[in-house]
Amino acid sequence: MDTRHTDEQYISSHLRARERGYIWLERELKRMLLVSTAVVTVFFAVLFFALKPDLAAWAVSLFSALALDAAWVYVNYRREYRNYQAIYRYLEEFETGNYAYRGREDFAGTGIRAQLAEQLARMGEAFGGLKEKLVEEKENTKGLVTDISHQLKTPVAAGELSYELLQDASLDEKERKEFLKRGRGELRRLSQLVETLSNLSRLEADMIRLAPKEADLKETLIRAVNGVYMKAEKKEIEIELMDFDAVRLVHDVRWTAEAVSNVLDNAVKYSPGGTKIMIRVNILVSYVFIEVEDEGIGIPKSEYADIFKRFYRGRGAAVLWEEGAGVGLYLVRKILEEQGGSVRAIKAPGGGTIMQMMLPKKYEV
User: Fold this and answer.
1) % of the chain surpassing 70 pLDDT
2) Closest by CA position to 145, among listed 324, 347, 310
């Protein structure tokens, strides 16, 4: 026996039944009509035997009652049928991707139909938002791949050029050492870039799970300073952590230190030698502000919002001259926002920049 043929016949028959309407609702109509007819008939039979009325008048009353009952059952059936038809229309629109569908008549009244229509409308809004988010994530992924490719091309090309030149037999020992040094520098830059991009992709894909716990904020800041101390020492830049009252916050020590370290790294990178970087902590009622003030080149006010975007680098010549992938401040923003905080840039009185980071004093893990 051909099972597939049998299944096709079964499905076809049910589709034809659905085209005639909601067949189960029709059965419900028949059941309700049968029950109500039986009740009315029994009621009039009891009246007939109890009161002994005129047979003709009794028969007219009986048939009139049965007609009214049938009409009432049918009206209720049609109302329910329209309700289910309205829900079916919503589901059909959702199936085609029209999540913004609104039936004008579906919000009238206060019955179950209006309630279901309202709930379906909210569900449509949620689906529409989810669809937009998926489209946005798809575009962001395409942009991320493009940006990563662009960031990797420069050190790879520079490294290849250095090692190609090393094969030139006419190079003297001094030139050979210089190109070898450049090649190692490009490899180191490439390694740092890959690590940064790896952290970025893992953080965006929620593969990095922050583990906030109560810890001393000062220890976190010292950890951040230690991460850039040698680079600052090389440029003779002083990093001073201003004294503040001890405060314990619920925060992820490792990644919060990474965020502050990224801010300090930028301050060192774009500040001239012999300058000073100040770290201040202001403790308020609900929040703690960590400020990093430098005496560097500053940031144009028009770029304050852009600098925290992924792969954004300033347009100034001094910025483009320095090495960087444009993801450091983006990671800072992501790490702080994951912990209920934020970051912003403001102009320093001396012409540099103040990076103001905020963390809540009470953070729900």
Assistant:
1) 75
2) 310
